[in-house]
Amino acid sequence: MNFSNKNLLFFFPESPFSKRAGNVLRTYTNLKQLKSLGLNIDLVGVEDYYKSFGDTAEGIDSENINEVFVLKTKPPKKN
Q: Does the pTM exceed 0.85?
């Protein structure tokens, strides 16, 4: 089955390329498998997670990911 020209928006809050834990490694493996099917993959992460683990968007494997979007979180409102 070939999904060429199909796009996938993949949300994972931390970097799947850090390979620091089982859930992260599993996510990395899933991304590689999806890419091998011919999907164009855009990755969405969360800035707070990237910062807390010392990751950057520059550390992303561009062979498996087409675009990276890192969401910034708003501070809570003070009443």
A: no
